[in-house]
Amino acid sequence: MKIFQKINKNIINVIKEGGVGVLPTDTLYGLVALALNKKAVKRVYQLKKRNPQKPCIILISSLKDLDIFGVCLSQSQNKFLKRAWPGRVSVVLMVGQKKQARTIEMSYLKPLNQTLAFRMPKPAWLRSLLKKTGPLIAPSCNPEGLEPAKTIKQAKEYFGDKVDFYLNKKTLQGSPSTLITFQGEEVVVLRQGEVKLK
Q1: What is the tens place of the pLDDT at every residue in 94-111?
Q2: Does a structural domain hold residue 101?
Q3: Which site among 106, 127, 183, 184 is 20 to 30 Å from 167 CA-CA?
Q4: Alpha-carbon span 100 to 121, nearest angstrom
């Protein structure tokens, strides 16, 4: 386990090789792992003691990343996401719909009714990291039922040497992201967070 003050090649390599770590997201500290690495995702669930049927929000670097998961957007949905992203809005989308997309076996990501939630975070450094690693799951940094870690000290109290790295930043006290979905072309707010949507 290492504590870093800034992103470097070590963090990127650890993630790409299936490691699990703690880093600041655009909302809270997250327990992160490659979304396309089944073993790494499973390890996050075990560390958090997370409900095995509860999916994680997936962080992406661009709309193009949605192709990996076979997401098919309508013109108006695409237009809305270009306005909402990057930002603290997570969107529940149908997956596995594009046949020409890279096919991945997604059952380990626990899709609900063939849907997963995605977010393109606003911080440029985080999107740059995601471009290099690929999409990450990033649930809040806490065992199920406890409050999310606001500092690296608190994160270490939770997970100690059980994770591969910590990326230290200031105290984070952000609100969860606003969670939405689409019903046809209509935007439906499932959870109001930092971004207020009507």
Answers
A1: 998 876 545 457 889 998
A2: yes
A3: 106
A4: 26
What is the pTM (predicted TM-score) of this model? 0.92
Triad 135, 37, 60: Cα angle to 5° = 5
Task: Look at phi and psi of residue 49 and say left if phi exceeds 0, alpha if psi is from -120 to 50, else beta.
Answer: left
CATH number at residue 183: 3.90.870.10
Res 13: pLDDT: 94
Instruction: Name the strands in the sheet holding 89-94, side by side, starting at the edge strand that comes first in the sequence.
Output: 2-4, 165-167, 21-24, 29-34, 136-137, 58-59, 115-119, 89-94, 178-183, 186-191
DSSP structure class, residue 56 = P
User: Is 68 within a domain?
Assistant: yes
Containing domain of residue 75, as a range? Answer: 2-191
In-domain check, residue 198:
no
Q: Which pLDDT belongs to residue 106?
A: 83
Sign (positive or negative) of CA dihedral 189, 141, 111, 71: positive
* Total domain count, the chain: 1
Nearest-angstrom CA–CA distance, 85 and 66:
13
Judge whether 55 lies within some domain: yes
Per-residue pLDDT tens digits for 18-42 = 999 999 998 889 999 999 999 999 9
